[in-house]
Structures are given as C-alpha cells and as structure tokens.
Amino acid sequence: MENIFLGAIFSFVLTFLLLPPLIRVAKVRELFVPTNYRKVHNNEVSALGGLAIFSSVLISFLLFVDAVNFPDVRYVVAMGLLMFFVGLRDDFHPVSVRTKLISQLMAVTVLVFLADIQIDFFSHFIDGGVGGFIDSLATIFIMLWVINAFNFIDGIDLLASLYAFIVFTILGIWFLLTDQYDYSLMLLSLSGAFMAFMIFNYSPSKIFMGDTGTLSVGLLLAITLLKFDDVNTLIAGSQYEFHNAPGLAFGFISIPFVDSIRVATLRIFRGVSPFKADKNHIHHLFLRLGWKQNQVAIFLGFIVILIIGINFILDYFYISSLGIIFIDLLIILAMYLMLFKALNKIGKLSYS
C-alpha cells in the first residue's frame, strides 16, 4: 500500500519539476497555442502540460505497479501511449478530426476486445453472443464519448485539471479501499500530477494540458469508469460495495457528458461538424456573465463534488441507477436554466 502513496508523491514532484523547463522551452521555441475561435487568453501560452502529466504518471506507475497481478497493464499503457503521441502531434501540428477519431477508435477497440474492458448489460437479455457483441459496441461508443467530453471541457484555465483531480482522487481512494492497488496507484498518481499541474494552470495560466493530456487522460478516465462498475460487482457483499454503480459512474462524468451532447447538437442544427470548435460550452457561458476563469472552474468543481455526494446518498437509500441519472440530469438542467435566464437578462444568450 505504501507504494501507492509513494507513486502519488513521486508523480507530484516529477510533474512539478518538469513544468518550469517546459514553460521555458516553449517560450524560447515559441511553442504556443495557435490563435483560434476558442481561445480565451490574450497572452501566449504553451499546450505542453500534458507532456509532463502523462510522463510523470507513466514513470510513477511503471516504477510501483505490480505487473504480474495486473495483466491489463500492457494494453492500458500501450493505448495510453497511442493517445499521448496523437495528442502530442496535434499540439505541434494540428491533425484532422478524422485522424483523431480513428486513433481513438483503435485504442478503445483494443481495450474492449483484448483487455475485456466493457460493460455487461445486453448479454443478460440477448443470448447467442449477440448480446455480448452489442455490449462491446456500446462500450466503444461510451469510451469515445467520454474521451471527447473530457477534451471539450479543457477550454479555460484550471477547469479540466481541477475536474480530473476531484474525480481521480475520489475513485483512487475507493479502488484503494477495495484492494485494487494497481488501479488506485494509477489514479492517485494522476491526482498527484494534476495537483502539481494546477499550480501552473491557475489563471492566468502559464501552461495548458493540450491534446497530449486530454486524449490520454480522457482514455484513462473512460477505463476507470468502466472498471469502477466491474470491480463493484467483484466485491459484492463488501462494506465498500455500491448498490447502483452505473448511476454513480454517470455522476462522475455527468457535466462534461451532458454539455458535450448539448454543444454537439447545437452544432449539428447549425449545419456544422459536431467537432468544430466554438464558444458555447458551459464554461464559455459563465464567462459571458463576467465570471473569471478561476471562478468558473471552482464553481463547476463544486457542482461536480455536490453531484457525486448526492449520488452517494441516493445509492445509500437504494435509489436505482436510472433514478440517480435522472436526478443528476435535473440538477444539471436547473443549472443551465438559471444560466440561460441570467444571460438572457443581460442580452448575451446566443448560440452562434
């Protein structure tokens, strides 16, 4: 167990040490985020933060992981590296949406069919292997959406890093309590890295995560949420078992998930690609109200914690997964309605 805490500390320290030289190199080489419509900063900032985050987590994980008792490690590491290099290429020389989607599809397909990381739902109702195949397809779709939902929220300072820190810390502790030491090591190493990254990502940000970070971390987030449900089934009868893990899993990703669906739908109705960048994400709406980037990030982080806490209480009282998801959606809908009302009042409610 001590290896887990050593891994988290090592990841924090290594990330903290790597970021300053990366920031200096970016200034010397002028490796800055290109000017585009989504940019909300006036100063030039590098997007190489993901390089420090993923490298630190990978080194910490490989140093302290028990690879013998974690047979999935080669698939998780390999596909994480695939996302890392695709993101790194995109941060230096933008790649097409098609290329990123193909690489994501390749990564999640390997994890589903070789590492057996997938949901187990339709197979209970449909026999003959068809149900299992539908489960695999559904898992691929869910993982792709989680990866891109996480990527979408990385639009302002602190938001994605604070969100990741909250989710990975809570889940990392739960995996530790359930004796899933290797997944706990991975998640708490991520928490340590993001704790260090937030020091430099706090507005005015000195460095961004970039696609190097969001794609690789988004993949790890998708894996974690699926393993959360899987492990919860394995520990049936334990004091740490949840009654409705799928509902709780949704709560961890609910805000990015819902916001990505809302924005993608708006883009489709406007006749543009759902992946075309704009300023209609929830964090952009708060900025229109005059909020500062740190204020938006901290407020949404609080809402994430609130939703997770409410979900734990609902699960304690045996509320079904569908019930939990429905209540989560009501909370998010209420937040949007209040936000839209405030924007409309000052004449800034626009979808362009």
Please specify the SSE layout and strand pairing.
Elements: H1 2-29, H2 49-64, H3 73-92, H4 97-113, H5 130-152, H6 159-177, H7 181-201, H8 210-234, H9 245-269, H10 282-288, H11 293-316, H12 321-345
Helix pairs in contact: 1-2, 1-7, 2-7, 2-8, 3-4, 3-8, 4-5, 5-8, 5-9, 6-7, 6-8, 6-11, 8-9, 9-11, 9-12, 10-12, 11-12
Distance between the termini: 51 Å
Poorly predicted runs = none
Radius of gyration: 20 Å
Strand content: under 5%
- Average pLDDT, all residues: 92
Describe this structure in words.
- The protein has 352 residues and is mainly alpha-helical.
- The protein has one domain.
- The protein is built from 12 helices and no strands.
- Helix 4 crosses helix 5 and helix 8 runs antiparallel to helix 9.
Quick take:
It contains twelve helices and no strands. It has 352 residues and is mainly alpha-helical.
List the defining traits of the structure above.
71% helix, 352 residues, mainly alpha
